[in-house]
Write a structure and sequence with these properties.
The chain is α/β, with parallel strands linked by helices. It is built from four helices and five strands; from the N terminus they run βαβαβαββα.
Length: 107
């Protein structure tokens, strides 16, 4: 199960993570977000030792959503060493998410 993060613990989780991090910005009313969540749950079991994958509900966490300019969901932001490395707005296939995670790991 993917861990929910929030405005209060976001910065610490990103900056203190020894692994690359992917954040899924979502909302419970968003149908594409639900489809992406199912894909991420499957991927999580393959990548949990290499990448931290978190979810952030944009409705409940306006501070971080605003800081990163989230205007459409789902949005995925990829971080490494506390710095934003990539962003994708919209849903991706499992294969394309794997490619992004693999690229993040080896970069």
């Amino acid at each position: 199960m993917l861990q929910e993060i929030n405005d209060d613990n976001f910065e610490n989780l990103i900056s203190e993570s020894e692994k690359p991090v992917m954040i899924d910005f979502w909302a419970p009313w968003c149908a594409p977000c639900k489809a992406l969540s199912a894909i991420l749950e499957e991927i999580f079991s393959e990548y949990y030792t290499k990448v931290s994958i978190f979810k952030l509900n944009v409705d409940n966490n306006p501070k971080i959503s605003s800081k990163y300019g989230i205007r459409s969901i789902p949005t995925m932001i990829f971080f490494k060493n506390g710095k934003k490395k990539d962003i994708h707005v919209g849903i991706l296939s499992k294969e394309n998410i794997r490619k992004k995670l693999d690229d993040l790991i080896i970069s």
